[in-house]
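From: lab user (bench 3)
To: helpdesk
Subject: output format question, protein + magnesium ion

Hello, I'm new to running complex predictions and I'm not sure whether the block I got back is the full result or only part of it. Here's what I submitted:
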Amino acid sequence: MNFEPVIGLEVHAHLKTDTKIFCSCSTKFGAPPNTHVCPVCLGMPGVLPVLNKKVVEYAMRMAFATNCEIAGESRFARKNYFYPDLPKGYQISQFELPIAEHGHVDISLPNSTKKRIGITRIHMEEDAGKSIHDPGRPVSFVDLNRTGVPLIEIVSEPDLASPEEAGAYLRQIRMILRYLSISDGNMEEGSFRCDANISVRPAGQTELGTRAELKNINSFKFVEKALAYEIKRQISVITGGGRVIQETRLWDTAKNRTNSMRGKEEAHDYRYFPDPDLVPLVIDDAWMDAVKKSLPELPDARRARFISDFDLSEYDADLLTADRKTADYFEACIATGAPTKLCANWIMGELAAALNARGKSIDQSPIPADALAKLLCLITDNVISGKIAKTVFEEMIETGKPAQTIVEEKGLVQVSDASAIEAVIDEVMTNNPDEVEKYRAGKKKLMGFFVGQVMRATKGKANPGVVNKILTNKLS
Ligand code: ADP
Ligand code: MG
Ligand code: ZN
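Helpdesk reply: Thanks, we reran it on our side. This is the complete output you should expect:
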């Protein structure tokens, strides 16, 4: 029997606001434990939460960007459970009336087709604190800096049909969050977390199978691995005559497998109810319009524009729009008049490699966009060859000097003067009489040898076009 996997994802993303969702404590990551706390986020008796307006705006941005309907009125609810890192004994979340529902995003599949994935809902909530267990001693610590840091949870429909689709969906969601400048989407720091729900069913069956929920997976790679493992496990349970049980499982990075954490019976009953300390959240049309107008161009639109306006391939457009800063850099580059394809190649090639090697992001590039554009214009103006440009580029990365200065200082200007090149060619031919003879006898492959010799003699400065033309003449 053939089985097909069914996957739905719940993504939690930290919002990049300066302050927490219900108090004015800082959200900064990495501060000493329990220094970003106040009576509100410590859950002292008698305090009242005050909703951070920015959080609502950020959630609205994501809702628009994922084609959701935004609720004119939504509500906060208390999700009750006991845990040491949750001082109030409940988390403020949204339950029956979330801020947004019924959206979708399109993901790209390998054969350059698109697939539409439904977004069930987006809601706002506060994060809990963090327990730190000391392996050497029978004690645990709790850091409450993270309590009250704003999150949005984005819940997908069970529309994903493979671990690869799940990976593509996660990358798409993260890309949108980053384009909107509302979240870092950093999985390692826990600002982008994913719970993956997965079931399998006989191919063609419409009814869903029983799902397992994989919790707290902290890298894209592990999400895909855990899902792939889980698909195999569930299929072998069913083909072995057993039944998949609904449970929460954890991914074991060391053993490359999932393990049961708790079954349905042990699942929490959260006893949700509307939070009486917070009034219903009302969003009027004017506010919605204002937020909608403030949205930047989104990745899909930008990608389409790059293809239609700049004549880039889908592949190039994908890479250049994968993050907003790269796309901005590219547009700044071509705004100076440098040719689009050359800019694209250098940004994705030399520049990406150099930044990568130095652990820098593109907005920390030692070469600003207009400086790279000037270098590339030196190539198209035939001042230097593409090969010399690479040397100049390395120097620019190290020293931050403009291309023109380096070219002048080092005397790298391309030699296009025919008589100067002719003299070098004559010398090369005199020094290599055997090769000349063989070439004339038909071994045309030797052209490369001659070009190489001329380039060596001119330290790479000879204009390759001129060299080729004169060589062809002289050798014939
Ligand atoms: P809970 O709140 O208990 O986690 P939800 O009904 O909100 O449950 O579903 C959470 C996620 O699980 C959603 O992304 C949904 O698409 C997915 N899901 C629900 N049923 C299945 C199933 N049978 N197989 C795979 N995914 C599922
Ligand atoms: Mg869940
Ligand atoms: Zn606080």
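A quick orientation on your result: The longest strand covers residues 114-126. Let us know if anything else is unclear.
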